[in-house]
From TrEMBL:
Subunit structure: Single-chain monomer with multiple functions.
Gene: polA
Leading EC class: transferase
SUPFAM superfamilies from the UniProt entry: 5' to 3' exonuclease, C-terminal subdomain (SSF47807), DNA/RNA polymerases (SSF56672), PIN domain-like (SSF88723), Ribonuclease H-like (SSF53098)
InterPro entries (alphabetical): 3'-5'_exonuclease_dom, 5-3_exonucl_a-hlix_arch_N, 5-3_exonuclease, 5-3_exonuclease_C_sf, DNA-dir_DNA_pol_A_CS, DNA-dir_DNA_pol_A_palm_dom, DNA/RNA_pol_sf, DNA_polI_H3TH
This enzyme's EC code(s): 2.7.7.7
GO biological-process terms attached to the record: DNA-templated DNA replication; double-strand break repair
GO molecular function, one term: 3'-5' exonuclease activity
Protein's recorded name: DNA polymerase I
Catalytic activity: DNA(n) + a 2'-deoxyribonucleoside 5'-triphosphate = DNA(n+1) + diphosphate
Pfam families in alphabetical order: 5_3_exonuc, 5_3_exonuc_N, DNA_pol_A, DNA_pol_A_exo1
Organism: Ameyamaea chiangmaiensis
Family: Belongs to the DNA polymerase type-A family.
Domain called DNA-directed DNA polymerase family A palm: residue spans: 679-885
Amino acid sequence: MTQESSPRHLVLVDGSGFIFRAFHALPPMHSPDGTPVNAVYGFTNMLTRLMRDHVGTHLAVIFDANRRTFRNDLYADYKAHRPEPPEDLRPQFALVRDAARALAVPSVELEGWEADDLLAAYARHMVETGGRCTIVSSDKDLMQLIRPGVELLDPIKQKPITAAEVDAKFGVSPDKVVDVQALMGDSVDNVPGVPGIGPKTASALIAEFGDLDSVLAAAEGMKPSKRRDNLLAHADAARMSRDLVRLRDDAPLPLSVDAMGCHEPDGDELAAWLETMGFRSLSQRLGMKVTAARGSMGRPASSPAPTPVPTVDSAPYTGYETVTDAAALEVWVARARDAGVCAVDTETSGLDPLACELVGVSLAVAPGQACYIPLRHDGDLEHPVGAQIPAATCLDILRSLLADPAVLKVFQNAKFDLLVLGRAGVETIAPVDDTMLISYAQSAGAHGQGMDELSQLHLGHAPITYDAVTGTGRNRVPFSRVDLRRATDYAAEDADVTLRLWQVLRPQLRPNRALALYEEMERPLIGVLADMERAGIAVDAQELRRMSADFAVRMEAIEGDLHRLAGRSFNVGSPKQLGEILFDEMGLPGGKRMKSGAWGTDSSVLQELAEQGHELPEKILDWRQLAKLKSTYADALVGQINPETGRVHTSFQMAVTSTGRLSSNEPNLQNIPIRTEEGGRIRRAFVAQPGHVLVSADYSQIELRLLADAADIAPLREAFALGQDIHARTASEVFGIPLDQLDARERRRAKAINFGIIYGISAFGLARQLKISPGEARSYIDAYFARYPGIRDFMERMKEEARAKGYVTTALGRRCYVPGIAERNGARRAYAERQAINAPLQGGAADIIKRAMVRLSRDLACSDLRAQMLLQVHDELLFEVAEGDAPALADLVRGVMEGAASLSVPLVVETGIGANWADAH
């Protein structure tokens, strides 16, 4: 699957719906020349938010050309009772088309046809050509179009209108809506229908007989009643009504879908049009440079104009306000509502969002316009703090702003702030943008995603550091003790920088082809991961203590063996002493001194010595493995149990890896060995709460499947399609041995090659892994590439792409930057080349499981299953579920995960159920 082969997604706006909704929702407003513009303003506002929040490859607005269509020829009185548009609305119809043009969104209309017919025709065209269509409207007449590939999106509630909503309104599925409407008629559009038959009767008749024709055919045999008489007398009217309400999906397409491709508007043209309209708050929200205007929206032309909005690069990073009373905070909230977007940042007493205390909140509503609201600064005798807003009062005021769907809240690392504010009692914060993830979606691996680094990179500004206001080392003070002036300079600047970064980075998403990745994957994943972190997972503390004691005993026994092998006692945990024993005293070969002069004794050195048959380095590796498991898990996990929840809460890092993979820390649950006995014991300590079980769902060989798909390897694709043992099939293909004559040795070697190829394994590396000579390993690799030349072509193609662009791209369009690809140093360049080969596969797998997580979160929220997603460990998801719901959950998870991407090979997910993680996995 390639980015180019991803299905097209056409988003269509019901223009009339936007216009009338805006006109009736907003008070009268006028442009500087006195023209009514409230509908234009509302239309522009809704369209810009749609462009920001809903991702498609193509976008257009569909309008009605005029009131007379072919339906008037069928029935002269069709829509005859509709009143003329209000006087103030008429001049705005042309202006909304100007708005669409200024935003670079095509407008489509056609004489003789209604907009609804064009929507139906484009929807049909998209489905027939393998794409999908989203129609942004809540018009009941469009519900008949809902089907696989065609979605109706409510523009106010910002949620899809599904078959369930259609059933609630009409009592039938979408394909039967026309029949129900034909029976009941429509007084608004003057569709006659059958007198005396309302919505409930119509849906009951269609449910009983199947469709309109069957109802009319059965009318003669119905028991005598007024309803029967009306059905017989008005049968022709019902059939004509069906022709009136049925949308014509065979309507001509006035504009090709190719001409509806999404484009960024011309900044100068848009800014000029917004200024002409007097839409100054919209200009501010969109980051336009605004000059003094003759008037402004909603004001007489003679009223004072507001202060011009500074551009991102000109406003100073100073002059921030410290807000210490409720009235001042209300002013800032009003400014945020007027802007429609504000940056938000929190200051806390620590780095654990589930345990720290909220110390203060910052807001920014425009570049250079930011404030800090201290909540829990305590000062000291020399530096008293003075009055502060009580935290509860502040949060009560902020709560409605943070939940307001009309105001976008921008964060840097939103998940942290959402957890902090959630712990403080603010449960609803939406909609949300995250500058860290906006950047990460475009530049994974190119640079760090921290605010300070992004600020210097994109704004040319070095923000005040945390150390500068709190001190360092022994002199560091908690942020709550920082002087309010200095605290304001630091905290408000963070919000200011975040808003400016948003204004710079957000518009780059579409040109960098990262908008869909951000909107459909990274952005919705913020809430999913926050819920997972908040949920945590239970651990058996007693089992961990028993495990720790057992590991200690085994480590002590190994230490005795090591002292015996060395001929003396030494500190097993000291690399310096170990190096002296291995290379000075025992004289083992291959030792290399580091810059400090000590011998290197990392795992690669010890592994090489162990493979040469030396027992002491082999036992050191065993001891180090036990020591790591003991300290990192058996001992540490007990101390990481949250006293409030009794569970362990890991933190998922969303923007650290270069491939899009999540990582976790405090504790890191992604490094537990999978195939060792000790790793199994660690997983056994993760348990379900009483009455529940854990369900594990794991992608099977997903990176190999992506390789078979991306490199188009027919034998591997066939093996996956047939459900064959892929390693046995590879062994048979490469070594020329029939499948029924293979032994475990050949399969093991093929498995090592299959997985090694993904990471660019060398002949030396394969030789060491299989304990064979480098020459023999080279012959295996040569035979592999001779049988599968497409894989070598793929590898060379990825390296060339990285050299040409500086990055490679996953199947779902993520750019994975490879900074070292142009290194002069051969070893570093070779490492970068291996990254270039692996990144599309590892990154592709990361994208797929992220997409599955987003879909599963939505499906679980709509289901009756008592389940919670707890962990993601690379290709595996772990859930906790009520015992009785476990089989149903496993089926749901398997279906969603296997359908998360369309490849030329099937995705396969293996599920397991158990009282603990080991049993489930």
